[in-house]
Each structure stands twice: as C-alpha cells, then as structure tokens.
Amino acid sequence: MSDGVVPNASVADMHDRRLLMDRSVSGRRAIEMPAADVPLAEMPSDDLLRDADDLQLPEVSQLDVIRYFTLLSRLNFSIDTNFYPLGSCTMKYNPKLNDQVASLGGFANIHPLQTDESVQGALEVMFELQQWLGEATALPGVGLAPLAGAQGEYAGLLIARAALEMRGESHRKVALIPDSAHGTNPASAAMAGLDVVTVKTDEFGNVDVEDLRAKADENACVFMLTIPSTLGLFEPNIIEINNIIHDAGGLVYADGANLNALLGLVKLGDLGVDICHSNLHKTFSTPHGGGGPGAGPVMVTEELASFLPEPIVVKSDTTRHSGSTTRHSGESRNPEGPGQSDIPTPSPSQGEIKRGSYHLTRPDNSIGKINGFHGSFSILVRAYTYMQSLGGDGLRAVSENALINANYIQARLRDRFDLAVDRLCMHETVLSGKRQADRGVPALSIAKRLLDYGIHAPTMYFPLIVPEALMVEPTETESKETLDRFVAVMQAIDDEIDSDPDSVNHAPHTLPNTRLDEATAARRPVLRWSSNGD
Amino acid sequence: MSDGVVPNASVADMHDRRLLMDRSVSGRRAIEMPAADVPLAEMPSDDLLRDADDLQLPEVSQLDVIRYFTLLSRLNFSIDTNFYPLGSCTMKYNPKLNDQVASLGGFANIHPLQTDESVQGALEVMFELQQWLGEATALPGVGLAPLAGAQGEYAGLLIARAALEMRGESHRKVALIPDSAHGTNPASAAMAGLDVVTVKTDEFGNVDVEDLRAKADENACVFMLTIPSTLGLFEPNIIEINNIIHDAGGLVYADGANLNALLGLVKLGDLGVDICHSNLHKTFSTPHGGGGPGAGPVMVTEELASFLPEPIVVKSDTTRHSGSTTRHSGESRNPEGPGQSDIPTPSPSQGEIKRGSYHLTRPDNSIGKINGFHGSFSILVRAYTYMQSLGGDGLRAVSENALINANYIQARLRDRFDLAVDRLCMHETVLSGKRQADRGVPALSIAKRLLDYGIHAPTMYFPLIVPEALMVEPTETESKETLDRFVAVMQAIDDEIDSDPDSVNHAPHTLPNTRLDEATAARRPVLRWSSNGD
Amino acid sequence: MTSNADSPHPFIPNTASERAQMLATIGVDDFDALITDIPEQHRNSSLRLPNAASELEVATRMQALAALNQDAGTRPSFLGAGAYHHFIPSTVGAILQRGEFVTSYTPYQPEAAQGVLQSGFEFQSAVAQIFGMEVANAGMYDGPTAFAEAGLMAARVSRRNRILILDTADKRLFEVAEAYARYQQVEIEAISRESVLNGDVPDDAACIAFQSPNFLGRIEDVKALTDAAHAAGALSVMHTYPTALGMFKSPGEFGVDIATGEGQPLGVPLTFGGAYVGLFTTKQRFIRQLPGRIIGRTTDTLGRTGYTLTLQTREQHIRRERATSNICTSTQLIGLMVAVYCATMGPNGLRKVAELSYHKAHYLANAIDALPGWSVIGGGGTFFNEFAVECPIAPVEVSRRLADRGITGGLPVTIPPDFGGNTRGASEGMLLCVTEMNSRQGIDRLVNALSDIGNGGAA
Amino acid sequence: MTSNADSPHPFIPNTASERAQMLATIGVDDFDALITDIPEQHRNSSLRLPNAASELEVATRMQALAALNQDAGTRPSFLGAGAYHHFIPSTVGAILQRGEFVTSYTPYQPEAAQGVLQSGFEFQSAVAQIFGMEVANAGMYDGPTAFAEAGLMAARVSRRNRILILDTADKRLFEVAEAYARYQQVEIEAISRESVLNGDVPDDAACIAFQSPNFLGRIEDVKALTDAAHAAGALSVMHTYPTALGMFKSPGEFGVDIATGEGQPLGVPLTFGGAYVGLFTTKQRFIRQLPGRIIGRTTDTLGRTGYTLTLQTREQHIRRERATSNICTSTQLIGLMVAVYCATMGPNGLRKVAELSYHKAHYLANAIDALPGWSVIGGGGTFFNEFAVECPIAPVEVSRRLADRGITGGLPVTIPPDFGGNTRGASEGMLLCVTEMNSRQGIDRLVNALSDIGNGGAA
Ligand SMILES: Cc1ncc(COP(=O)(O)O)c(C=O)c1O
Ligand SMILES: Cc1ncc(COP(=O)(O)O)c(C=O)c1O
To answer: In chain C, at which end, N or C, are there fewer CB atoms within 10 A of the end residue's CB?
Structure first.
C-alpha cells in the first residue's frame, strides 16, 4: 500500500486505500447527536449493557467520511461514466428524475404499516404499476412483492406448485430448464423443492423440442424458459413448446429478465406463458446500485392471480384481481400479532379503511409473505415514473432500438469474432472468443483489456453452453457513435492479440488494481477489517 | 485529441474531451417539453422571430448530458477529493447539511418579490444572520446584499464615501492600501473613485506605521487593512494604526476575508474598525463552486448603519438598525415601477405588511441597490446553517484549530523553506521558495508538482511582496495526519529538486493535461465552440 | 417540433436516419425483419398504456401523488414493528448521489469496481462489529428474508431439519421463514420460551431462532436461549434490531451462531417498507454455508491490496441448483447507506441514538402508564424503545382518532395470554415505538391525545 | 459522552491530545501563545451566540423555517419582473451534486481544474449562441450587475462618459447601474424611446442601453435603437431575458454591441433572488475590455486541448486598481447549472419553453382583457410572457386577496403616463408573468379569482 508520498503514476495511486478503521482516531467524530430532552430513565442492568469500548466503529471526522467514500466512488465503472455492455444485465441510462421522485418526502418517509388511507398516493403508484405490467405482459395478475428477479422466480414457482397442488397434482416436482438458463433458475427451482431436469439447446440456439417433449412427462411441474434466451434469441417454437408443456399438464414460467427486448413487440401471456417475472432494475431502468436493490414483480394469468404473494393493491370500486379479497369500510380488520398467533394477517395495515379507495390486500390463495413488507417500494416508484416518461410508444421504441443496437454490433463484429449462433439476435449478441483463445488470449483477457479502454466488459463465460462466451448487450440508450467506438476497440484488441498478446493477457493496466488474486481470496478469506491487519 | 481507441495510459485519456457541440447529432434531444394546454396565440411578426436553425445548441441524449458532465467533474480537484491548502481561499469542508437545507422547496422556490408576509422563514434566516455577523465582528450594522467579497468591499467604500460626504468631506479621495493587499482592494477603491496610495509593509510583516502616518493626511478617505494580513499575520499595532486613521479623519475598512482566524479570539469592531466585509464562502464554509457564488456581507458601526446597501431585514417590534426605516401595517407601500419613475423603492416587496414580523427595508441613507435582489440568499442560508451547527464555542474552535494547523505546518517546514516572515502565524503561513528557485525550481513548479501527489497547490506568487511565495492555508477541517502527509510531500519535492529537477519543472505528469500554454490562450483567444473547430 | 428524423425519446439517442443506416449495415430492409421469430399472430400487439409524458408532467404528477401520503417527516409517528424512523445524517444522502455507486452493476469485474467492493467490505466490517460476530455477508434482501435464510443455513450446518422459532417473534418472521422453507424438507415450528429454558428442545432441532428485542420490544435472555440451544446440539439464531446493539450486549458476546437483522434503521429511509437490506452475520467456521454475496480482501499482481467477490462457488451463478441461496441482485446500494451511516455515527453516535431512543420510549411508557385506562403490557422485563399498551377502546379506533389529531399512532396488535410471561388474558393493544426523532413535545402531544381519547375524546 | 479528549466538533478533526502534540512541535506551551499579537484587552472576547446544535436539531429548525415560506412549487405564482419560475430538468440537480464541482475553487491551477474550465467553456459557448453574440464571459454576479458593468465597459470602449438608459427598463437596472457608476466619472441618464428614434442622442453618449423585453414585457425595436445608437457613435447595449431568445431574434442579429441578461431563467431556482448568474456577451473586438472571468481554449505541452482562464491581465489580481472590474469570486457553479440546462434543453427545448410561455401568457392576457374592470396595458406592441394589467382596485390589495386564495399574484407596478407609448394617464397596475410552469388550470384559477375580486369578492 502506498506510503502516501509517492506521486501518482496512475489512477491506481490516486489516493490511499486504507480502510476507515485504519484512519480512526479515538475521540474524532463525524456527527453530533442532540442531548436528551426528556428525564433519563433508569438504565437496564449491567449484564445487558454493552461495554463502551466493545463497539469498534470508525472514529473519523465528517470530512473524512465524505472524502473517503467520494474517492472510493471514483474507483468504479458505471453507466454515468462508462459504456457498460454487460449482457443480460441491461445496463442502460437510469433517468435522474426517477431518483429525485423516489426521494420526495411523501414517498421516502412513509412507514409500511401506516393505514391504507394515509398512503393513498403510494398505493396508487403500486396499483397502476400492477396494471401496466399486466398490460405489458398480457398476464393480468401482478404481484409487486418480490425484491429481485430471483425472488420473482421463487414466488412464481411457489405459485405453480400451489396451483398444481390445488389441482391435486402435488406429485409434479420437475422443473425443466434449458441448459442456457441463468443460474437463478435452477437455484430457485431447488429452493422450491423441484428436481431440475436440463433441456438441451439445439444448434440454432433454440430449445431442442424433441428433448423437451421426451422430458415433459407427468412429473413436469414447470418449464422455465428465458425469453429471449440468454443467447439473445427469440424462441421461434415458443407456441409449440408451450403446448407441449400444457399438454403434459405443466405450467410455463418465463424468465422475463430480458423483457426489454419484447415491449410492444409481443406479450408473453399471448404466447401461452402462465407465469413470468420482470426485473424492474433491467427493463424498467431502475439503477443497479452496484448489485441491488432491485424488484422482480411476478405476473400470472387471471386463473393464477389468487395465488400471488402478499400484498397486492386493489381499488375498492373494482375487483380486477379475481382471486383477491377486497375489504370495505366497516369490515373488521385484525390487528397484527406476534408469531404464535394463528390469526391470519389479511393486510399489513391497521385501522379501518374508510376514506381511501386503494387497499393492500392478501389474495385468497396467496403463497404468503416472501419478505417483510410490500416489496422494493423505492424501486417500484422509479419504474412507474419511467413508464410514464416513456408511455406505450416509448416502450416499444426501447425494444426496437435495443434490437437494432445489438444487431448492429453483431453485424460489425462477425468477421472478427465467432457468433454463438449465426442468426439475427434480439437485444444482445453472444460472441465466442474461440478464435482468439486459439491464438492464446482467452475471453477473460479480452474482457479485462476492454476495461483499459474505459469500456466495461461484456458478461463472460455465460451462457455456459458457449465456449469463450462474451455476451454483449448495448441497450437502446447508447448511441451509434458509442457502438462504433466499441467495435473499433474490439477490433483493436483483436489486433493486439497478434501484436502484443502478453499485454492483453495481463490487462487491465490502467485501473486501481491489476488483476486480483481471487483464488487466495477464497482460500484464505478475509472478510472484514481487523485490528491486526488481516 | 484521442481517437477513442487508444487504451488509457492515464487519467488524461480516461475519456474524450470533445465539446458537446462536437457530439451533437441533429434530432437528438435530452428532454421533452409538454404540449401546450391552452389555445395557441397568434405568433408575433416574422421579423421578430428567430430562425429555427439560428440557435446552435447541442442536440444530445439525456445520457450524453449526464455522462459528459460527470466525467468532466472527475477532472477537477476539490475539497471532497483532495487536500486543498490554497492560501487566502479557506478551502475547508463544506458540510453537506447546508446544501440539503438550501435545496428545501421553501427556500429554493421562493420569488424575491413575494410579499414579506409570505417569506417570514427566509426573512428570519436573514435577520438572525445579520445579528450573528454583527456579534462576531462587534459591528452591529449588517448588510447582506453584497454578492462576494469584492462587492462587499465596494459597498463598504460607498458607505465610507457617503458618510464622509454627509460630514461635508467629499474631498477625501485617497484609499490607503498596504502593498500586501489582495487585488480586489485597489480594484474596488478605483471603482469607488478613490486614488490608491500604497502603504509599505515592514520587515516584520506589519504595516509600516511611519509610512502610514506620513500618508494619512486630510485626503484620506479610508484605510483598507486585511486582518490577519495576507501574510497570515495579525497586525500588532492595529489600535495605534486605527487611531492614526481616525485622527486623520478617515475611516478604517477591514478586509475580513480572513475572519476565520479571529472568531471568538477578537472582534474587529472592538479594535476600532469602522467597516468590514466577510466572505461567507470562506469563513462560514459555503462551497466555492469552482469560483462562486459567494456572499460578502458588509458590517459597520452603529453610526454607519443607515448607509447600508438595500435591503436589510428588520423585525417590526425592534428598531435595532438605528438608521433604518421600519414600516408598519397599514402604511402605504409604493409599488415598483419602470426606470424613469422617480419614486423611491423603499422595499422590494409589494403588498402591505400585516401578519409577519420581519420586513425587508431600505436604510434611510442607503447607498442603494448594488445588485438585483437581496443578496446570495442560497449562500446566506448555508452560512446561517453552518453557524447554528458550530455555535459560539464551535466558531472559536474553528479559529483555534485553523491557527494551530497553520503554525504546525510552518514549524515543520521551516527548515526546508524560507518563511516570508519568521514569526508565529495566524491561519496561514506564507513560505518563500527562494532557496528552491536558486536551485533552479521556481515556486510555480513546486505548486504543479504537488498536484501529482494529489494535493492542490498553495496560492502562488501572492502576496506580491514575497518572492516565490507559496501561501499555505490548511484550515481547521484537515487532520494532523493530512498535514503530516503534506509536510512529507513538500520534503519529497524539495529532495526531488536535487535529484530530478526536470521532472519537477515539467510537472504535473499525472493530470488530464500537462502544463497549458496560457500565453497562446491570451494571444489568440478562443472563447467558445465554433463549427470550424477553432 | 419533433419530426420523424428526431430521436424517439430523450432516453433513446439514435435518429431515424441513424437507424436506417444501422439496419443497412445489419443487412435488413426494415425493423420488422429483426423479429420474424416472433409468432406472427402475436407480433406488434400494441401496448394500451398512457402516452409518453414530458419530465415536467411526470414530475408534477408524482409530486401530487407523494403529497397524498402522510409523511413521518411532517407529523409525529409512533410506528415501529420492524421499520424505524431514525435520523439519517446528511453524509448518507450526499454519498448516495454518486452516480458511480448508483449506476454500476454487481462487481463481477473487480478491477473496475473497487469502489463498490471496498465500501461493501466496510459494510461487512461495520455489521460484524455491531453484531459482535466474526463475519457478515454483503447483505440480504431484507431482515425477514435474512432470518429465513438463517434458519435454512442452520439446517445445512447442523444437518437437522426442525427450525424452532420462539413464539415471541414477529409473525412476519414466521411467515417469511415458512415461505422460504415450504418445500425444503425442513419444518418450521413455534416454541415457547418456557420449553426452551426447561430444556424441552427436540433433539433434531437445527436451531432455536428468536427475536430480541422481541415483537413487543422486550429483550430476551439471549444467553439462556443460546445455552439451551447449544445444550440440545442446535444452533442459536437471533434476529435483532441493530440500533439496540448501540447499548445492549451483542449476539456475539452470548455465543449466538447466526445473527440477522433489518438494516433499515441504520441510515435507510422508511420508504413504505423497501428497499431495505438484511444483515446476516455468523461465525468464521460457517462461511461456506453463508447465503448471498461476500466480499473478501486480496492482492493484485503488483501486491497491492484490493477487494473481490469471494466464495462464489456457494452462489447460483456457479453452483446453480446446489447453491446456498438463489439470491443474485441483492441490496448493495442500501448496504452502502448503512456503511456511510456507521462511518458517520461511529461508536458514540450509535450509542447515543440507542440511548436517546431508550430514554424517550421510557418517558412515554411512564406517562401512558400513569393515564387512567391505559397500561403498559407485554411481559415485563427490559424493553428498548418499543412496548405495547392496553387501550380502553379498540386500538384500531385509537389509531383512527390519533390520525385525526395529526399523529401517526402505533400498531394495533393482539397480545396472546401467555406472551412473554404475561399472565393476563389475550388482549388487544397498541405497539408503540419511540426514537430520537420523537421530540418531547411530540411525545407529550401523544400522551395528551391518548388521555383525551381515553376520556371519550371526539371520534 | 463527549470528553475533553474528543475533537471539538464533527467538522474539526483534531483531538485535544493531537493539538497538544502540535503545540509542542510549534514550540509553544499553549494556544494563547499563538495570539499574543492580538491586543490583550480585546483578546478572547466571547461570542454571544447560541450553543452548537446537532445536525438533527439544525435540520429540524431549518425545515420549520422553510415551511413558513410560500413556495412557488406548491401554489400558482405569477411573479416575474426579473426572476422567473421556469422548469429545471433533473439533469441540472444531478450534476450539481458532484462534489468535485461544488467544492473546488476558481481554476487558478488549470491542470487540476479542467472540469470547471471545460464546463465553463460550454457555458460561454451556449450563452454566446443564445445571444447570437461573438463572445461571452464566464458569468457575472447577476443580471443587473452585468448590465451596470456593460454600461461602464461601453464608456471604456467609446471613451465617452454618458450612459443613456431607455426609460422603459426596470428601475432596478437603473439603480444598480447608478451604484456602480457613482464615482466613476460617468453619468447615468434616462432617455425616452422617442428621443432615441428621433436621433435626439447627445454626441458624448457612450451607449444607448435598453431592456427588451422591457420592464412591462414589451419587445423593443432592437434594430431601430441599435441603429440610432450607432448613428450617434454610441454603442448599443441590450439587457434581455434569455428565455425569450428561444423564439425572438437575438441581439447579435441586430448588431447590438454588448448584450447582458439574467441567467436565472436558464435552470436556476428562484431562491429568493440569489445566487444567480449575470450573462455578459459582446463582440470579439472588445474582449480586452470585458469585465470578469474568461475561459479560453489552448493546448498543453503534449499538444492536447485544454482550457484555462485567459486575458487575466484585465483582472484585479494582476491589474489591481486598473482592472476592468473588481470581480473575483463570481458565479461559476450557477454558470454550470446554465450549461447543463442548455445542454439538456438544446435548441428545440429552449424554443419550446419560450413558445409555451408566450402562448400561456397570451391566453391569460386575453382572458383578463375580457373581464370587466380589468385591462391589459403597457404600451401595445408585442409581449413575450409578461404584461401589465390595470386593476379595478389597488394592486397591492389585489395581491393580498389573491394570497388569501392561495395564489401568488403579479407585482404591483406604477405605469407612467407615457410608458412605451401608452397614451393614458399614470396608473397603478399589476405586472403578471406566465411560464410553462403555469398550468391552464392555475391560470383559470387566477382569472376566476380576479373576476371575483373585480366583482368585490371578499377581502
Ligand atoms: C436471465 C436472468 N434471469 C434471472 C436473473 C436474476 O435476477 P436478479 O438478479 O434480479 O435476481 C438475471 C439477472 O441477474 C438474469 O439475467
Ligand atoms: C484577502 C482577500 N480579500 C478579498 C477577496 C475577494 O473576495 P471575493 O473573491 O469573494 O470577491 C479575497 C478572495 O478572493 C481575499 O482573499
């Protein structure tokens, strides 16, 4: 670590990297709290109280806090600073308006257990977002509770299981999942107690229909189809496939992480999908925050709506969600209770509903609560704001331009890089670095080298079925000029593989760190600051 | 300029530097405005209307705007990212609370011509700030209108001239100004129609009292004393000096840019000062914003209060400002008018004052309006917030620690660098790089070399009377550890002067640009984007 | 003004002519050629959504919606029960505005993500410290999901399948744990404090999981519960309110094996229940069973310190159906808020927040207890800043009448007869919470209002 | 909690023991030894100010003070007259949060300030474009001071000393110009439009300075005024409302020599009148007489483009008493807001804002003109978005009654008999302003209120 008096040779040394605890000086402080304005109560007994010096948190000044985290922020690539074509992740412009709206006092300072009537504005946001997501997918039952895509998957699988159980088919315990699927699909399936059976992808990148037909038997609970697939392809046989599953008595789950390719072009429900989720932090452009928070609403057919996770929002003069119970003014509401009580919790709100017209409620056959309150509200607000800004036509333009941008990159790079599948793509293109690997430079190094050019790496080595995969998703918010520069840089790197492969294999050279030793990190894990410095 | 496909060798190439107009693509846009919700009016005649293509502003996407300015921001040193010991400028931590408070709707969205009663909160801020600045300086007449230190000086000089005119001494047209003064002092004096007579500084850094006595004659209007001086020294003879001026019939103006050295230690009014200003953006820690906005309130004795610039705030149940007119409910208020009207403008507010207790008013002998409205309100709010956070004791601690920090640096560097004056300093220390210049490296190069270490340069070549001056002001918000690193870096640079003078003389090496050709910039000025690229 | 040649939207840069050029490069005649894989009968079905609105219109509408909500920033509020209105220092908001943090992705390329990684390491360090535990992960979705995953982890570690949850815990914790465990070959069961302390723990218990302070705000006997769990060969799992740890002994000090909490009180606004961050801590020896992301320290090829995601072989993107959890996108940015909060508060600030909450809550409890018709209930013992009161009229009605007086009252709750050792019969009550944000004046207003309501004050 | 060993404040890091160490290094026994130069009888006189308050307390108090103000964001407002309530896109606030911009100083070290410098160059470029002028400086304190300095500059350029200001200009412009010129051997005088257009301009006139749109919102005949100035050997100086230039011809197109304006309408909130930024533009050949900061383009030693302050020999820190102005700290950050605003609005956005303001203002004017007892006055001719109306009762009373109805009315003004060619007698009126922020609904509310007030509606 720099001793602090070496001039900066590069960004790498732009500031010292010591942790806050290593800057801590006893007696410093970054904040003052007020004195108590009430008489002091008797303190609890000593054996409950923490020793004053047991709590080792940093003691630094307020400037230290600001300068430290500000400098840290600058060590990071981001949409606001870099082109970030990270496939499957949909790293697109996150409008600043959305953040500003989410920070309004009327949204930021409301408690999740306030009465419905005291949060009508928030409930209207949620209600309309439900409607709009239902419209975008033609799956009218919408539950906003899931906190990310993976939780949306889990909720969707719980719904599938519950629905099949209600049909008396609780023996159906197989999740059919294509080999190209994202890791959360099998992981969610396993959490839902399903056995994962992998379905093959054919040479055109499509689901191997014969393989599927063979495996879709009386144990099939659900088929999890990512659409477009992680190869960036739309499944042309989707209707046939969905029929196969339905004929086998199973349900079709669509992983909607790539819904940004479909807006206004096609609706999942129209294709026979029963259940899907959408990552609002991808398609609906809420910021990724370095890895969350996100939101993964689950959308289902009318028939399945009564199974949605708690809560959903209903309007008291409508009963749009067939399966949900709407309570009206004057009906008694049960208060909350501690754990052992067997009183059902029909709604997280206390008090009678009287003045408001939106209500939180629990669908009749709900799979229950999958998290503490009502979902990632701050993310829901952003997505709703985004959808208003775009409108129906704008959302279609999102998908159109996402497709054009991806195909443009694919067309311009196909002479240098192999394509995972040689056909038009949807919103992303999967390149294979096979030819480059044969010349001694693996996809990893190409990815790292891109960082030196100020471009974030594509998703690497995914989907798993493509050797040396580099999955490129430019998104609609980047301009042709940016794409052209990306193409030029990829060509330059491809040239470097011949002229100076070592330099590519040792990239990055210009970042705060050179390649990090991930093996040692995992072998001898150091997961927190400690006073002896390891 | 980078062609965009060169990997970044350093921060310098971290992004392309083209201007927005060079990124503009006809038809792009970063915002949508609503359609008109009223019937369209007839348009004015064509000879008044601008051609559609006459307005060449950038046409870029919203992401372009955000990414462009975000990346630009990263090319800059700042308090939030760097130690910034720029003498006389008081670059200290700007608390984030202040910015948050200033952006509250109730402060940010009020119009300067609203009735007094509709802005009582804003007027309370201004009233209390007046009181507090009066207390801090023992000069109870406070005018908040001046928009920066230099405007505060100008206002103060107008007050001096008006007061002397009222005494029948309008012949007094000399401003006595020490040779160490900041450039705004003589520039303001010239604007006020005064002849600048320079007063010498003696070998101890003090005002040469004999020189002053000789020059303080019957033409003396004002003596402008910076206290502490730009040498970072407190004038030990200040009382004698002020007596000389007063005996000569002149007034004493204190440039309070360095008031951060005096809080709770001494009050200017107690020393015989008649008029002073304070740079809120220095002492009271409002952010400098890359060169403003600031605020430069002017403080005067009770006697001079009636001359303050318009407006001041009074409380209807007090008449604290002896010279000011307070209007009460029911009194008639004149409306505003266009230019030629000779109706005086007693207050910028319309309507009768009835419910509120704070009022904007014009002091009886006011020097008038020196700017459009009531001063840099957004800065005044920040300074007021800051003063509340610190309180009386905290403000004293500000000055105490500013002094200790400056003296500590001076003590630690005095073996390597000459001192402008070899004595204890106040809030800043002026080093002289004479020894270093003799070894072939001017102060300029030392300053530039510091940038490579991530430290902003001290003020260079100022005050003008010190050869190779490096004026170092650490401020109280920096820790001993930061000061120690600064000392170590200065020592390292001093060593480099022997080991590698060239490298120092060509510094900086690690910034977005190497040294810029300022001579050509001035000789062939290019002051805006133009389509032919120059 | 907008012509066909214009870009379709401020968020979508390319103009019609650029698109035409690109389609030509792609080698197709028009956009439709790109979507021939979509079944024709369902292609281009239009979205029945409102038209695009300008930023001014959207901002105006959203401000109006926000204004419909009763905001804890503008009226006294006494709601807690899992989400808490604590002070958030200005530093948190300032750092949260850094686009580099907000608009980056999960740090899969560590060299380009040291900002997120190092601040995440700060989060792990602070959380582990506050909990007195050896390690923390980089955050879970929220408190209840962290608690649910803790139970599942205990089952993996112990290789047993009964997750016993003390019956004084918030029902939400039960519900979420049940939803997580539903098909995972483990049982979720409630157990009473008495049973545990009497050693009445089944020998296939994976863990004794409990909440302290419990749902009604009382501090549980963490040591006794933990010792009892260990005696039965089970793990001790504790869910806590991290602010309380500013003054109360940490789970680590009592030997708890897995401790979880809701991170929201540490610098995160209420935002109607989310996004929050779940805190998850455990012992070093269990790290390979941890769910979620973990950031570790390492060195680069030049020997310099750096940070990276680590132990990724536990995670879904590598281990797929055998992962310790399906969590992928998590709550990094909320974790950043917690990290900045902890750095700003420091040990003294956190303690002060805890103590202020404690003293103010006791001030309120004493005042209410003195009102005829009202009494503090819920089992005796020490409480931190929440407690239940028995009301002379139905608590939902109390809540309504308080709302009419501009006060957000506490949460109507059912208190079972034996809750936490209370010997009275089942009753309805109101769970009240007080923090440093409640001024004495606001507390006094509540007391006066309750007194008035108790005396039959206008409905 | 806070002990003597603690740092004195969150903003002051060093602890007592560090201070003791530092004093030892300095070689003094105690702090008092550092201030012996201060006359003893006045040393350490204590500050009678409130005690330090915690962030929570200060924030609470300031929120309460802010809430006392009637905010144009929450009620319809029709005030203009030099400060305008225009839409500010979200991009402006987002960029304004960058600490690197907010907490840096004047770019005296250009290599470490390219962010401020390049964005300042964008500001100069955009302002020059909007004004149709060859060059702009980096900003003045505000519009009126820019106008005042323009008059002084005209005197320097022309070497004449009579600054003639058209009598239709805002009185504030006169007053500030007078305060700036007071001792500078120049005269400020009012002149009527008629005199100028009749060629009745004294031959020692430095400039004809005018405001268009003028104080009552009317567009002046810029070409005729400019031609008349030039015919008299004087400069043409124009002060304008930059938003109007989104649809009206620019000063540059008419040959104006110096054009100034208030930058506030371009992305800066009202903030009770400041901080704003003055816009200052002129012809290339006058650049060495410009007041204020100027940023120029240049190259570095490696030939790369960069930006730097330039023409500094005009400035006070070099030229001292012979500087073109005393301005030092200026308004860089407000200029950044303008730069981001212009980049976001682009040509079409700015035109749209102008047109919306124009159409809405005319909608209101027509509606008021149709009300019995009310009429639009102020000299005929074209107006942009401001106009005066004659009221059936005293305008200050109108304003009060509107306030009671939740509307911020226009500015009570006196309209002289001959203002802008009006032939009626002197009258009192109300100057109303409409922008894109006024919804039709809000406008209709005003019209109804005026109608009601005109009919004797309750006081
Ligand atoms: C195809 C796909 N499915 C599922 C997920 C999981 O979503 P989340 O990360 O929001 O849990 C992702 C993204 O990470 C994905 O790309
Ligand atoms: C000593 C001194 N006087 C006056 C000024 C002028 O103040 P301002 O820049 O606010 O106009 C400054 C700062 O720049 C200064 O340092």
So the answer is: C
Residue pair A91/A98 in contact by the 8 Å Cβ criterion = no
Ligand nearest to the CA of A288: 1
Query: Would you call C433 helix, strand, or coil by DSSP?
Result: strand
Q: What is the largest CA-CA distance in chain C?
A: 83
Number of domains in chain C: 2
Q: How far is CA D288 from CA A290, D285, D324, in A?
A: 50, 8, 9
Residue C148, CA distances (Å) to A158, C127, C235, D331 in order: 16, 18, 14, 55
With 60 as the cut, is the pLDDT of residue A11 above it? no
pLDDT, tens only, A210-244: 999 999 999 999 999 999 999 999 999 999 999 99
B489 is in which domain, residue-wise? Answer: 392-523
**From CA B141, how far away is CA B366, in angstroms rounded?**
12
**D305 in any annotated domain:** yes
pLDDT means per 10 residues, chain D with 459 residues, are 72 97 97 97 94 97 96 95 98 98 97 98 98 98 98 97 96 97 95 94 96 96 97 98 98 98 98 98 96 96 96 82 89 98 98 98 96 84 94 94 96 76 65 97 97 81
C315 and C362 assigned to the same domain: no
One-letter amino acid at A148 equals A
Say if CB B349 and CB B126 are below 8 A apart. Answer: no
All residues at 6 or more sequence positions from B466 whose CB lies less than 8 Å from its CB, including other chains: B231, B420, B430, B432
Domain end point (choices B347, B379, B411) = B379
Mark whether C351 and C434 lie in a shared domain.
yes
pTM exceeds 0.90: yes
What's the rounded Cα separation, in Å, for the pair B321 and A365? 74
What are the pLDDT digits (tens) for B228-265? Answer: 999 999 999 999 999 999 999 999 999 999 999 999 99
CA atoms within 13 A on the CB side of D319: 20
Q: Which of B330, B346, B379 is the last residue of a domain?
A: B379
**Last-in-domain residue among C326, C341, C356:** C341
- A&C contacts, CB < 8 Å: 779
Q: Which helix (H) or strand (E) holds B314?
A: strand B312-315
The answer to whether the Cβ–Cβ distance between D416 and B338 falls below 8 Å is: yes
- Whole-number pLDDT of residue A230: 95
- Residues C278, C382: one domain? no
CATH of the domain at A504: 3.90.1150.10
- The ligand placed nearest to the CA atom of residue B257 is 2
Does residue D248 sit in the same domain as residue D275? yes
- For chain A, what is the mean pLDDT? 91
Q: Is the Cβ atom of B294 under 6 angstroms away from ligand 2?
A: yes
DSSP characters over A231-247: TS---TTHHHHHHHHHH
Q: What is the CATH number of the domain that holds C210?
A: 3.40.640.10
Query: Range of C450's domain?
Result: 347-454
CA distance A149 to chain D (A): 28
Pairing of strands B220-226, D305-309: unpaired
**First and final CA of chain B: distance in angstroms?**
14
Work out how many domains chain A is built from and give that number.
2
DSSP string, B134-186: HHHHT--EEE---SSHHHHHHHHHHHHHHHHHHTT-TT--EEEEETT--THHH
- CATH classification of the domain holding B272: 3.40.640.10
Together in a domain, B256 and B155 = yes
Pocket lining: B288 vs ligand 2, CB cutoff 6 Å: no
Using a 6 Å cutoff on CB, does residue A459 contact ligand 1?
Answer: no
> Which of the 8 DSSP states describes residue B39?
P
A69 at C interface, C-beta within 8 A: yes
On whether residue A234 sits in a domain, the answer given is: yes
Q: Are residues D283 and D379 in the same domain?
A: no
Is the model's pLDDT at C129 over the cut of 90? yes
Distance D192 CA to ligand 2 centre (A): 40
